[in-house]
C-alpha cells in the first residue's frame, strides 16, 4: 500500500494560552463552530495544494482550530491525491483522537465510518483496504506500516513521489525544515513552511490571582460558578490523573442536589485512557437541550480532539506523565506543571515485513534523539532476549516478534508456546492492566494458588464458558469491558499464530507447562521472596512490594520465586500480576536465550 501521510497537531476552533503556572485554574471561552467554510484553513487551500504538489515535505503551522486535521485530508482527497490505490494517512497522538476525528471527517465527507474514511488503532481496525482513502491512525500503527512496507523507511530518499505534511500549532517549524533539508540534493524543493494565519474566534482568558492549595477543589468550584452564571455552552476541564478526575466528579455530584430548578441540568462525563472506546465517546456526544455537559479529562483530550459545543476550558496547569529510568528499569508516574505548548493545545479544545534500513541506532538521524542510555538499555534487553544479534541484525525469531503488536517479552512468550504446547492459554495475558476488577470475595472463586496469571485465565475461561454475559460479569465483580477486550485481542492474536504456524493447543490444565512458558518471556522480571514479606529483584537487587490486587499479596510463594508482569513506582516499588516459578526454570527457559548457541 502506498502511503501519503503527515502528522497534524490539533483541530477544533480555539486559541492559544500563555504559560500556566502550577495551581492556576484558567477559563477560556469561545463560541462553537457552525460551518466548515468558516475555518481559517479554507482561505489557504490553494497555497497548501500548490506546496504539496511542488515540495516533498510541507511544514504547516497554524493556530489550534484552524482545520488542519479535519480539512487537509479532504483537500487532498478532492485534489486526487488518493487516486491509483494511494491512501491519505493521518497520524494521531492517541486512540481517542484517531477514532473521534475519523467519525467527524466521515460525517463531513458523507460516508459511513470505515468506508471512504476510517481509522486503525491497536487491536481495532475500522477501515477497508479496498475503499478507504482517508485513514486516521495512531503513531504505533504507522510503525506497523513501516514493517509491512519497508519502502516507507527513509521514504523521501527512496520514493520522491511521496508527500509528507507535518503540521501543528506548537512546533518549531525551522527545526523540522533543517531536518528534512539536511543532506538533500535539492533542499530548495525538498521542504517548505506554510503559515496559516487566522483564528476562529476571539478568546477570553482569566487566571486565578495566586496558586491555590487544592487545585481539584478550586477547579470544581470554577465549574460550578460558570454553571450558575447561566448561558449556553459545555465545559472541558483538564486534571492530571484518574484519581483527580474521580475526586472532582464526586465534588460536583455533591453539589447537584442544590441546583435550582430553573438552571440547566448538568451532565458530568469523565475522559481518560482507562475507559473503553464507547465510554470515551460519551464525551463527544451531543448535549441535550436544557442541559450542560461537563467533560473532566486528562491530557488525553489535549491534542487533535474536538468536542463540539465546548465553550469553556478550565486548565489546572498540571499533567501526569510516566518517567522511565533506564538504569533501574523502573517507570513512575509524576505530576509536573504543563508546558506552554500543552497549555496552548488545551486552550484550542474550545468550540471546534522486512528489516529496516537502520543499521546503527546510535547514528540514526533523530529529529529529537532519546538519551543514549535509554537506547543502550533497550538494545541490551533485545540482545539478551535473543531478538537481536551482536551485529545489530534481527534474529529469525526477532523478525517475527517485530511484526506482532505486543511488548517484545509477551510476543517472545507467544512464540515459545509452541515448545510448551500451551498456545491456547498463552494468548490471554495480553489486555491492558488486570483483566477484571475483582471484588475480594468473588476473586477467590477464580484464584489459582500458582498466582495471578492463572487466576486471570480462570476468570477468562469462565467468562467464555458462561456466554460472555454482562450480567454474569456483574454478579462476579468482573469488568465486562476488560473481559470483552480480552476476547477481541485473543481472536486477533490467533491470526498471528496462524500466520507463523504456531500450534494452538491447550496444555490441558498443566499449570507447570504454562508457567514455564511464562518464564520464557518474563525471565528478566524475576524476583525472590524475602523474610520481611518483600521481594528482591534478580536484576538490580531492588526491594519490591506486591501490589494489593495480587493473590500473592498476603502469602509466601511455595518456591520463594516469582515472575511479574510489570513494576511501577508510586510511594514504593510495586510489582503486579505475579506467578510462582521454580528458580531452575530461569536457566532452563529464560537465560538460555541469552547464551550463545
From TrEMBL:
Q: Which PROSITE patterns match?
A: HELICASE_ATP_BIND_1, HELICASE_CTER
All copies of domain Helicase ATP-binding, residue ranges: 49-189
The domain of life for this entry's organism is Eukaryota
Pfam families in UniProt: Helicase_C (PF00271), OB_NTP_bind (PF07717)
**Which positions fall inside the Helicase C-terminal domain?**
218-395
Q: Which GO terms describe its cellular component?
A: catalytic step 2 spliceosome
Please provide, alphabetically and separated by semicolons, the GO molecular function terms listed in this UniProt record: helicase activity; hydrolase activity; RNA binding
The family database entries (SMART domains) matched by this protein are listed as: DEXDc, HA2, HELICc
Gene3D superfamilies, alphabetized: 1.20.120.1080, P-loop containing nucleotide triphosphate hydrolases
Keyword list, A-Z: Hydrolase
Return the protein name.
P-loop containing nucleoside triphosphate hydrolase protein
Organism per entry: Coprinellus micaceus
Amino acid at each position: 500500500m502506498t502511503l501519503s501521510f503527515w502528522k497534524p497537531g490539533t483541530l477544533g476552533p480555539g486559541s492559544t494560552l500563555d504559560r500556566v503556572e502550577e495551581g492556576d485554574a484558567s477559563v477560556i471561552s469561545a463560541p462553537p463552530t457552525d460551518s466548515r467554510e468558516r475555518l481559517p484553513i479554507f482561505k489557504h487551500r490553494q497555497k497548501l495544494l500548490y506546496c504539496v504538489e511542488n515540495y516533498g515535505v510541507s511544514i504547516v503551522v497554524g493556530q489550534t482550530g484552524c482545520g488542519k486535521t479535519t480539512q487537509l485530508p479532504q483537500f487532498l482527497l478532492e485534489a486526487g491525491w488518493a487516486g491509483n490505490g494511494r491512501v491519505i494517512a493521518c497520524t494521531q497522538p492517541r486512540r481517542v483522537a484517531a477514532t473521534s476525528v475519523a467519525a467527524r471527517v466521515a460525517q463531513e465527507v458523507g460516508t459511513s465510518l470505515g468506508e471512504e474514511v476510517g481509522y486503525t488503532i491497536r487491536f481495532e481496525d475500522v477501515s477497508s483496504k479496498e475503499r478507504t482513502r482517508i485513514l486516521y491512525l495512531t503513531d504505533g500503527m504507522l510503525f506497523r506500516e513501516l514493517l509491512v512496507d519497508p519502502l516507507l523507511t527513509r521514504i523521501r530518499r527512496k520514493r520522491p513521489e511521496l508527500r509528507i505534511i507535518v503540521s501543528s500549532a506548537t512546533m518549531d517549524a525551522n527545526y523540522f525544515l533543517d531536518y528534512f533539508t539536511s543532506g538533500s540534493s535539492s533542499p530548495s524543493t525538498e521542504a517548505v513552511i506554510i503559515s496559516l494565519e487566522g483564528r476562529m474566534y476571539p478568546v477570553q482568558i482569566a487566571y486565578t490571582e495566586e496558586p491555590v492549595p487544592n487545585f481539584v477543589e478550586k477547579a470544581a468550584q470554577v465549574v460550578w460558578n460558570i454553571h450558575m452564571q447561566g448561558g449556553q455552552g459545555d465545559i472541558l476541564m483538564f486534571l492530571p490523573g484518574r484519581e483527580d478526575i474521580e475526586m472532582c466528579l464526586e465534588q460536583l455530584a455533591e453539589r447537584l442536589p442544590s441546583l435550582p430548578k430553573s438552571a440547566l441540568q448538568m451532565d458530568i462525563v469523565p475522559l481518560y485512557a482507562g475507559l473503553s472506546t464507547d465510554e470515551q465517546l460519551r464525551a463527544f456526544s451531543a448535549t441535550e437541550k436544557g442541559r450542560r455537559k461537563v467533560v473532566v479529562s486528562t491530557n488525553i483530550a489535549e491534542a487533535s480532539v474536538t468536542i463540539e459545543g465546548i465553550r469553556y476550558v478550565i486548565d489546572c496547569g498540571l499533567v501526569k506523565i510516566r518517567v522511565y529510568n533506564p538504569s533501574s528499569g523502573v517507570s513512575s508516574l509524576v505530576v509536573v506543571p504543563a508546558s506552554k505548548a500543552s497549555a496552548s493545545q488545551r486552550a484550542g479544545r474550545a468550540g471546534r515485513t522486512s528489516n529496516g534500513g537502520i543499521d546503527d541506532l546510535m547514528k540514526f538521524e533523530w529529529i529529537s534523539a532519546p538519551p543514549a542510555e535509554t537506547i543502550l538499555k533497550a538494545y541490551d534487553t533485545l540482545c539478551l532476549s535473543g531478538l537481536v544479534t551482536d551485529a545489530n541484525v534481527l534474529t529469525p525469531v526477532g523478525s517475527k516478534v517485530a511484526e506482532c503488536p505486543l511488548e517484545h517479552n509477551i510476543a517472545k512468550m507467544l512464540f515459545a508456546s509452541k515448545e510448551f504446547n500451551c498456545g491456547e492459554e498463552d494468548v490471554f495475558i495480553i489486555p491492558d492492566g488486570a483483566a477484571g476488577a475483582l471484588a475480594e470475595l468473588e476473586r477467590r472463586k477464580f484464584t489459582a494458588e500458582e498466582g495471578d496469571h492463572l487466576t486471570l485465565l480462570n476468570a477468562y475461561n469462565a467468562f467464555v464458558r458462561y456466554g460472555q454475559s454482562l450480567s454474569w460479569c456483574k454478579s462476579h465483580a468482573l469488568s465486562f469491558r476488560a473481559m470483552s477486550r480480552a476476547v477481541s485481542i485473543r481472536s486477533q492474536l490467533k491470526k498471528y499464530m496462524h500466520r507463523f504456524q504456531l500450534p494452538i493447543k491447550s496444555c490441558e490444565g498443566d499449570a507447570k507447562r504454562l508457567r514455564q512458558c511464562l518464564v520464557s518471556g518474563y525471565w528478566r522480571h524475576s524476583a525472590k521472596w524475602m523474610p520481611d514479606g518483600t521481594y528482591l529483584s534478580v536484576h538490580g537487587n531492588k526491594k519490591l512490594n506486591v501490589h494489593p490486587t495480587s493473590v500473592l499479596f498476603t502469602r509466601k510463594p511455595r518456591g520463594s520465586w516469582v515472575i511479574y508482569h510489570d513494576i511501577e513506582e508510586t510511594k514504593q516499588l510495586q510489582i503486579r500480576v505475579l506467578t510462582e516459578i521454580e528458580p531452575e526454570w530461569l536457566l532452563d527457559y529464560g537465560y538460555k536465550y541469552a547464551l550463545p548457541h
